[in-house]
Design a protein that fits this description.
- The chain is of the alpha+beta class and about 240 residues long.
- It has eight helices and eleven strands.
- It has a four-stranded antiparallel β-sheet with strand order 1-8-3-6.
- A hairpin with a 2-residue loop joins strand 10 and strand 11.
- The protein is globular.
- The termini are far apart.
Length: about 240
């Protein structure tokens, strides 16, 4: 059965066909059955806000399919996109475990299938099921390492062009042969790119124009194609 958004409805974790290696929900059958009891499966349209920075944590969201934009906002209203979460990731985990407010805002970038577990139910799972605790610890460690890499790239990149080059490379499929052209997995607007690298939309537009002139990238409609991966990597150093 499909929804109006064209997504396959996932009504039970036990019968889910979307889960793959590396997904937070790759649990043993016994534990997955316990998770299923407290799960609430939802389908959300693009632009739906799951939680807001500073909000008291209600629970975690396991992203079954789609993409979710995670962002933070400064006091003067400037938005910085921290990352774009993909299928298999868990959102709000650190806030739920620590009992502190959500550190960021989560908004669906496309129609998404999500699994919500309330904070109380998840904390009960942690106490009863050591496997859930191990998965949570591994995921928090992965989040910390990812945040460290992002801070390193954002702060230590020598120029805005280097930051943009790193961003474009991070969106490209990693398994593609090095000499092949790379079609980006997700199309971002110039404003979203600016929010990812801490710059302005006008600067991103100018930088993309420069990259096209250098024949490092090209545009095919709404798709951005990396023509020269080696050249872009050199710029990102």
């Amino acid at each position: 059965m499909r929804t109006p958004y064209g997504l396959e409805i996932i009504e039970s974790c036990m019968g889910c066909k979307a889960s793959q290696h590396g997904f937070f929900c790759r649990l043993s059958t016994t534990v997955l059955r316990s998770v299923d009891v407290v799960s609430h499966h939802n389908v959300m349209p693009a632009g739906a806000v799951l939680f807001v920075e500073g909000q008291t944590p209600r629970g975690i969201f396991i992203l079954c399919s789609g993409n979710v934009k995670l962002s933070t906002t400064s006091k003067d209203g400037k938005v910085l996109i921290l990352k774009q979460a993909e299928a298999g990731e868990v959102l709000g985990l650190s806030a739920v475990i620590s009992g502190t407010n959500y550190e960021m805002t989560a908004e669906t970038a496309v129609p998404c299938q999500l699994n919500f577990i309330s904070r109380q139910d998840f904390m009960n799972l942690l106490q009863r099921e050591s496997e859930v605790g191990m998965h949570a610890a591994l995921w928090l460690s992965r989040e910390f390492q990812g945040a460290y890499r992002d801070i390193h790239d954002l702060v230590l990149a020598r120029s805005s062009s280097g930051k943009l080059a790193r961003l474009l490379l991070s969106c490209a499929p990693r398994e593609a042969p090095h000499k092949e052209e790379l079609h980006l997995r997700s199309a971002m607007t110039h404003e979203e790119m600016a929010q990812r690298i801490g710059s302005s939309r006008e600067t991103v537009t100018r930088l993309l124009s420069d990259l096209k002139k250098k024949r490092l990238i090209r545009l095919e409609g709404a798709t951005l194609v990396i023509r020269d991966r080696t050249g872009l990597e050199a710029l990102a150093v």
